[in-house]
Amino acid sequence: MSEIRILVVDDRSEVRQSLQMLLEKDQRFSVVAALSSCQDALRLIKLEAPQAVTVRWPMADGSSASCVRQVSGKFATPVVAVVDADFARNEALALRQGAVSAFPALPSPLHQDYARRCQAFLDHVAAMSKVHIIRRKLDFRPVGENLCSSALAEPRMTQVMGVGIVASTGGPAAVCEILRKLPAEFPAPVLLVQHITSEFSESFVEWLDKNVPMRVQMAENEELTAAGSIYVAPPDFHLHWENRRTWLRKGERECWQRPSGNVLFRSLAESGLNTIGVILTGLGEDGAQGLLSLRQSGSHTIAQDRASCVVYGMPKAAVRIGAVDEELALDMIGPRILDLARRPGVL
Q: Using 50, 70 and 90 to split pLDDT, how confident is the model at 264?
């Protein structure tokens, strides 16, 4: 098996050398170079194309954003942003510039979880190196311009009682883009499964709450859901929606995930209520089978389209099995949900 060619970009000498040594100890990787500036990295990529690039976010000179944009957009190379602090906020910023994912900076070797975190980082970089990057503009089309078809699919005309959203790689920025277009008085609860490391789940909820009109909270067991509120699945628990309450259960992982989008979507389908299911950018296939169950139950389903995804994995899997009523560009999903939710119910 050929080695994965990695370029490390970090303006701190000690950290840069540490990452290089860590990667080179893993037989899966070959470090093309470990550089201190984005300018040097861009020059090298023209000569020897790596299969993935790790970039410190943010660099001291403020060049991280430009570097990520160019590596991703011009050279179609996956970028993993290595985030120092305020993970949820900086992850969203990096993903907006075209990074395929973000990973928290590694702790000191004296940290009790150092070995586990290092292994998780190596596995993450290996997975991200396989992501196919689509060259595209980072700014999406104006609201109202459909990338997929000349007419939107017509939903079943009954009152929407809940919305389920599932996202993975690239999800925080996409989720925020959608939810900031839903008003505080949105007429249904929103249930969200976002694949994210457990140590940053609380900061993600706090960040999202500050950036969208609706109230955002971590879901609790047996909690009655309310319109105008967003309930985020906590780490290591599946999120179910039954009798309009959130239920947290361990259960087996699905598609290697807990929480799993399949579990959430199936619970919406089994609720007997009309809901909306949305599957967003992400690696793998989590959520696809559950979304199919939801569509078969009579609810409306939406997938983020290929052009606006950071990783067109989960939406692609859902489209392939016929789980999707319509594919939409990211900037169209929020207005579409609002339109569906505001339509009067027809019995």
A: very high
Q: Is residue 63 part of a domain?
A: yes
The one catalytic residue in 64, 72, 101, 168 is: 168
Q: Which domain holds residue 267?
A: 162-342
In a domain, 57, yes or no: yes
The answer to whether residue 157 sits within a structural domain is no
Q: Based on the domain organization, do 319 and 191 belong to the same domain?
A: yes
Q: Quick one: 115 and 211 in the same domain?
A: no
Tell me which residue of 214, 140, 203 sits closest to 174, measured CA to CA.
140
Closest CA to 248 of 260, 256, 194: 260
Q: Which of 26, 195, 300, 325 is catalytic?
A: 195
pLDDT band for position 144 (cuts 50, 70, 90): very low
286 has catalytic annotation: yes
Number of domains in the chain: 2
Query: For residue 198, what is the domain's CATH number?
Result: 3.40.50.180
Q: What is the pLDDT of residues 293-321, one digit of tens each?
A: 999 998 999 999 999 998 899 999 999 99
Is residue 61 part of the annotated active site? The answer reads no
Q: For 113-141, how does the pLDDT look when each residue is reduced to its tens digit (9 = 90+)?
A: 899 999 999 988 988 888 766 554 444 33
Among the listed residues 137, 189, 182, the one whose alpha carbon sits nearest the alpha carbon of residue 164: 189
Give the residue among 178, 7, 19 at the shortest CA–CA distance from 92. Answer: 178
Backbone torsions φ then ψ of 320, nearest 5 degrees: -60, -35
Which pLDDT score is estimated for 213? 95
β pairing state of 223-224 and 245-249: antiparallel
Q: Are 79 and 86 in contact (CB under 8 A)?
A: no
Find the catalytic residue in 26, 286, 325, 331.
286
Shared-domain flag, residues 294 and 220 = yes
User: What does the pLDDT look like over 97-113, one tens digit per residue?
Assistant: 888 888 899 999 999 98
